[in-house]
Amino acid sequence: xxxxxxxxxxxxxxxxxxxxxxxxxxxxxxxxxxxxxxxxxxxxxxxxxxxxxxxxxxxxxxxxxxxxxxxxxxxxxxxxxxxxxxxxxxxxxxxxxxxxxxxxxxxxxxxxxxxxxxxxxxxxxxxxxxxxxxxxxxxxxxxxxxxxxxxxxxxxxxxxxxxxxxxxxxxxxxxxxxxxxxxxxxxxxxxxxxxxxxxxxxxxxxxxxxxxxxxxxxxxxxxxxxxxxxxxxxxxxxxxxxxxxxxxxxxxxxxxxxxxxxxxxxxxxxxxxxxxxxxxxxxxxxxxxxxxxxxxxxxxxxxxxxxxxxxxxxxxxxxxxxxxxxxxxxxxxxxxxxxxxxxxxxxxxxxxxxxxxxxxxxxxxxxxxxxxxxxxxxxxxxxxxxxxxxxxxxxxxxxxxxxxxxxxxxxxxxxxxxxxxxxxxxxxxxxxxxxxxxxxxxxxxxxxxxxxxxxxxxxxxxxxxxxxxxxxxxxxxxxxxxxxxxxxxxxxxxxxxxxxxxxxxxxxxxxxxxxxxxxxxxxxxxxxxxxx
Amino acid sequence: xxxxxxxxxxxxxxxxxxxxxxxxxxxxxxxxxxxxxxxxxxxxxxxxxxxxxxxxxxxxxxxxxxxxxxxxxxxxxxxxxxxxxxxxxxxxxxxxxxxxxxxxxxxxxxxxxxxxxxxxxxxxxxxxxxxxxxxxxxxxxxxxxxxxxxxxxxxxxxxxxxxxxxxxxxxxxxxxxxxxxxxxxxxxxxxxxxxxxxxxxxxxxxxxxxxxxxxxxxxxxxxxxxxxxxxxxxxxxxxxxxxxxxxxxxxxxxxxxxxxxxxxxxxxxxxxxxxxxxxxxxxxxxxxxxxxxxxxxxxxxxxxxxxxxxxxxxxxxxxxxxxxxxxxxxxxxxxxxxxxxxxxxxxxxxxxxxxxxxxxxxxxxxxxxxxxxxxxxxxxxxxxxxxxxxxxxxxxxxxxxxxxxxxxxxxxxxxxxxxxxxxxxxxxxxxxxxxxxxxxxxxxxxxxxxxxxxxxxxxxxxxxxxxxxxxxxxxxxxxxxxxxxxxxxxxxxxxxxxxxxxxxxxxxxxxxxxxxxxxxxxxxxxxxxxxx
Lengths: 532, 532
Known about the structure:
- The structure is a homodimer.
- By secondary structure, chain A is mostly beta strands.
- In chain A, 3% of the residues lie in helices and 49% in strands.
- Chain A has a 30-stranded mixed β-sheet that branches.
- The longest helix of chain A has 15 residues, at 15-29.
- Chain A binds chain B through residues 12, 17, 20, 46-50, 52, 59-63, 65, 143-146, 148, 151-157, 217-218, 314, 319, 321, 325, 329, 361-365, and chain B through 12, 17, 20, 46-50, 52, 59, 61-63, 65, 143-146, 148, 151-157, 217-218, 314, 319, 321, 325, 329, 361-365.
């Protein structure tokens, strides 16, 4: 097996540029492995790759800088030997595009400049709190008391702040977003001459020693981005910090994460700026095993498709619209794909069609031609690509101390969540899907949650129960959004509602401890036994 | 000659979509003309074209919406029969990409939502002025007294304001940018309950009845964008308003503008948001005749190349960097091109090289291989592509009442400016080129300014004379940036300096009236005769 060693290409003093040469050599020489010496590689964005990308759930289409680009390649293993890859600012560590059977292993991903600001609570006064900014100060601009991050001359407003307990590192008990004031627009930021930052109009003074992390509204990049790939494997990959999500994969098939972790370092209470992992319109099997997710500023895992709205029907043609700005420009429908058509309020499919032709008019509008008559299809309803169906194995993982939820499950294939530990301030597992705002699809067919520990989940305000099905706006008698949810052998502790299931044909809740009385609504058949 | 009529394609009620079908028919059927009935066509951006574009001097790379896209086409005439093409917001009216022999005629371009705000001065108080916002109010957001335009959730700061005299429509005499306060960051904007907008901390209260136009910092689109085309002709084209420049052409050869105008309408004192016309790295002949330019919020015409900086030399390889953000991502160098290498302070070339290979590393860095030894080439110096050399005929045109200058001339080919009328608040003709900030190149070879009228030019603060050469930071004895500037038969009036030439091998100033005593420095030979 031909192996190429990066050390043989470190010639110019610019690792970004030398990486380009090394990857070209892999391609030219048909090498199957690219091996790096254990080291810290600092990637200067000046000479790194660039591609125009539409990254789902990041919402910023256009040119993106990329440290390591794997594009149209096959059968390659990148072994960083435990190295740290440091990027600064708006740059992706890795992009895997339209490639097959690629493995990335033994690498630590770090980005100290991700548009986040972390501050330690030093003291509190009457309606104000004084903070020591420990991270991200150079990315902060205050104009007339309002905090912004700045990108290419545009001001990016504050999205929210979250609060970490200074001792435990957990999300401060009972808090969620905007811990200083539920109306963050009222806050007034001031840099004091002693170097501290004072925030005025604080409604709830945070405990001294706690850490506040301020997030701004835009996700201009991601840690690892994957599109159109088959057979990706990530082994021993640690994200200490990155712009946007840790790993976002769209339109990929078969992905394995083995010991992929978000892990705090450098005094940061946060890791990825957004979700740790996120899978959109994927198919095949997604395996996530032996992973640990902490400190990410959104969910640990989210898996879903994308609903589009039928804006017009004309003969056998449909005009479909990407309804959420973060889904724009992604080529989610191909010739031959099978679409399910459903009502936005119930998300229940009422017919299926096959795509015989597709044209992307622009980032928003997809024009398709159907094989079938569209007599029954109504404009105003939603469409979902059911040819992209992924199953998920989530086993032996730990999720803790992050903003928002643990997992958002909207995978149409078989889902197994086994031997995991959750300690999340929001819901640990949320069955989410939404046809009217986020447009993240869809319903599940078979979900098994087995032998997991849920420790004090949902002590904050994100969600309503440790395991929860988000309700639909409307239901139909004897029709269900989910087919089967099985929860067995799990252990729950904490004061919140533990299980709240809705809109499933079958629910099995057996042999669990501490799950209290499950809240159940619109369930076809329930088997609830031997819980205590 | 096969003609296609747009009326035959107006079927769906969506002109953007029907245009797509009509243009496809032109291509499929080899039609030479696409003719529109005289009408007002409102283009809904929902279904219009989209391309990822890097538009010079606009600085916003990525996806752009386009109402009419001519791409890889040949020998086509678009005749709008006097129609008005209305677009709203961030959308280009026309993009001509990699096409040959295309004519656009008889069209009026209008965009009522270009991120500009116009307001009429209603009254003045002690340090404040009250304004009636007449245009663009829906694009304005005021946060804590600061005005912004908003794009995809980002706040776009105020760039400047200009002031038009309410009676004459000219730029208010003696003013330039920021007429209310030279430090616009001190201004405080407030929407009063009576619907007026009050601006506090005004240092100079504007005359009642004058109009203020507020511009924001970013140019997210353009009226007409051309790239990589040969043989474009624009005849009877009127821009009443557009986002960004009226017409921006880059890397094109042979362009004719005949009766291309920027013209006010709808109560707007401004027309294009930026330059009326702009030519970058073009070649062949640019002809601009019988045109009228008024109200544009930057120069009437700017023609130049782009200097890149040599950031590294390695054997026969050079790494060139795009130095200005508005030049990023434009493919200005091709195989076989001839580059001139010059010192940034003098902009005097000291050697030439031929490009045998070129790779675009990303939007910033271009890696080239030279045919020749690079022994004499120094990193830190600038490079200019001299294979892109355009001549310019600017004849029978009127330029008046716009922000900034009339013409910025940095064309390396022959330049003839004849029978024109200029009444500009800044310099009418500025020989600009800059190797240290804008990086707009280059020196001229032969310029003739003949039988033109300069009426009260440069009464404001943009530039130093009606006709002016911007000085270089350094000069060398007996070496010159310009080769020959001839000014004959022109008539000047106004109190400003009329002619200020610098750094030209030869200057001829003959048979002019009212030009006072020209200011001349570092000129090889001067012929100044028969002026009064």
